[in-house]
Design brief:
- The protein is 41% helix and 15% strand.
- The longest helix is centred in the C-terminal third of the chain and has 17 residues.
- With 447 residues, it is α/β, with parallel strands linked by helices.
- The strands form 3 sheets. The protein has an 8-stranded mixed beta sheet with strand order 6-9-10-11-12-13-15-14, with helices on both faces. The protein has a 5-stranded parallel beta sheet with strand order 2-1-3-4-5, with helices on both faces. It has a two-stranded antiparallel ribbon with strand order 7-8.
- Strand 12, helix 17 and strand 13 form a beta-alpha-beta unit.
- It contains 18 helices and 15 strands.
- Helix 11 packs parallel to helix 12, helix 14 runs parallel beside helix 16 and helix 17 packs parallel to helix 18.
Length: 447
């Protein structure tokens, strides 16, 4: 049965409920979960609506990896509780900040680690969540009760934005510099990507991270299943593929495979496509560096995200991250040499407990020495229950913000384009993004 006929049947069914699905500011993997929930409800003869005022059930998919995102999720839950609908809070908040959520909400929850518990909330459903495949396109929440959101949806329906994006993409590809990786990044960033998630869960034990509570340990999909998924995307006309997971680098450890085997299978398939690997823990890049060099020579991988989190060995050891900074630099430079147009993205945490100003400068120096093409600098957020909570002394919020401002000046002097991104929500306004873009049209607006 096609989606359109699914919806028609749903409207005719007296058991039909109207479901409104929205997300807080979260990673793309949770937005893919939201899309999967939407498919689940449609297959069980419910109707998805874009207005919470018309809903019987509201599903809120949340993030809680930082304190600011927890606050945003709690604020959104409070707001949605005011509608005449049953609220279900899903995602990472129910396990990461369970006590905080219970202070304001005593209703139904479904955590990221136990998504299939949604079936217990809807025992009448004939089709269970495990029968619904993972989504390949992230959920884009539309709230027609908000004027601006409704206007954006109308523009999307008119395909105006897609036409503009196609114009710029075609212009870039036809230009004399169209092969430049940064221009390629701009082109692919405005195209609708196809997401492949090879695994769920994480093997890392980072001292600052609370996400393990919500996502659980590693579960990889069979290699052949992923290759078939990639081929479906190609058959549907997609050219931009994002391979993303909670811990992408250790894909396959539990099923007798690994990330480079998967990539080699994919790049052996002919076609006009590009791969974005997002994110790979540096320890796995280092372990498989010889294989990655050969994979990059195919020209199919245009971007690799790999979060170093700090540039100082002592701080990295405290974080339980890979701490040989010389090996880190050597490895990333080998990647760039293997495929010079490659865009390498990384993330830095500023102000981890006991980090000194000089140790913070090591993070800026490694950005400069590797010449990362794109990156994000985050202020440290101390989550309750993490190991970092017991590491002292703590850096004050004032000191952390001072360092972020210093990073902005430092990187600008090194010819980086550096911005506080307005498109982030208020809770993330102190995040700093830098890019080595030259004259590339930049989608990041100035503050």
């Amino acid at each position: 049965m096609k989606a359109g006929s699914d919806l028609q049947f749903a409207r005719a069914n007296h058991n039909t409920k109207k479901i409104f699905i929205t997300t807080t500011w979260t990673c793309v993997r949770r937005k893919l979960d939201a899309r999967r929930y939407a498919d689940y409800f449609v297959k069980n003869n419910h109707e998805i609506v874009n207005d919470p005022r018309k809903a019987d059930v509201i599903l809120l998919v949340t993030c809680a990896d930082t304190n600011s995102r927890t606050e945003q999720a709690l604020k959104e839950a409070k707001k949605l509780m005011n509608y005449n609908a049953e609220l279900i809070v899903a995602g990472c908040l129910p396990l990461i900040d369970k006590e905080r959520l219970e202070e304001i909400f005593n209703g139904k929850t479904v955590s990221t680690k136990e998504m299939e518990k949604i079936d217990e909330l809807f025992p009448e459903h004939k089709i269970k969540l495990h029968e619904i495949p993972d989504a390949t396109i992230p959920w884009q929440a539309v709230d027609e009760s908000k004027t601006f959101s409704a206007l954006k949806e109308q523009m999307r329906k008119l395909k105006l934005v897609n036409k503009i994006n196609k114009f710029f993409t075609d212009a870039i590809r036809k230009s004399s510099v169209g092969s430049n990786a940064l221009l390629s990044y701009y082109a692919t960033s405005v195209e609708k990507p196809y997401f492949i998630v090879p695994s769920r869960g994480c093997l890392g034990k980072c001292a600052y991270c609370a996400i393990n509570k919500a996502i659980g340990t590693m579960h990889s999909k069979p290699l052949d299943e992923l290759v078939s998924n990639f081929k479906r995307g190609l058959d549907q006309g997609y050219k931009n593929f994002v391979i993303d997971a909670d811990d992408l680098g250790c894909y396959g450890i539990d099923v007798g495979s690994n990330i480079t085997q998967l990539l080699n299978k994919i790049i052996s398939i002919p076609g006009d496509y590009r791969l974005d690997l997002h994110f790979i823990h540096p320890q796995w890049v280092i372990r498989y560096i010889d294989e990655f060099e050969e994979i990059l020579k195919s020209g199919k991988v245009y971007r690799i995200g790999s979060s170093i989190q700090a540039g100082n060995p002592r701080v990295l050891k405290l974080m339980h991250r890979y701490s040989d900074t010389e090996k880190l630099k050597e490895t990333f430079l080998r990647l760039k040499k293997a495929y010079p147009p490659l865009l390498i993205e990384t993330e830095i945490i500023v102000g981890f407990p006991s980090e000194t100003f000089e140790e913070f400068l090591d993070s800026l120096r490694i950005i400069e020495e590797v010449r990362f093409g794109w990156g994000v600098i985050y202020p440290f957020s101390c989550k309750s229950g993490t190991e970092a909570e017991n590491i002292n002394p703590k850096n004050s919020q004032e000191e952390i913000l001072k360092r972020i401002k210093y990073a902005k000046k430092y990187l600008r002097k090194r010819k980086y384009d550096v911005r506080y991104p307005k498109f982030f929500r208020k809770s993330s306004q102190n995040i700093l993004i830098y890019s080595d873009v030259g004259s590339m049209p930049n989608p990041i607006r100035k503050k």
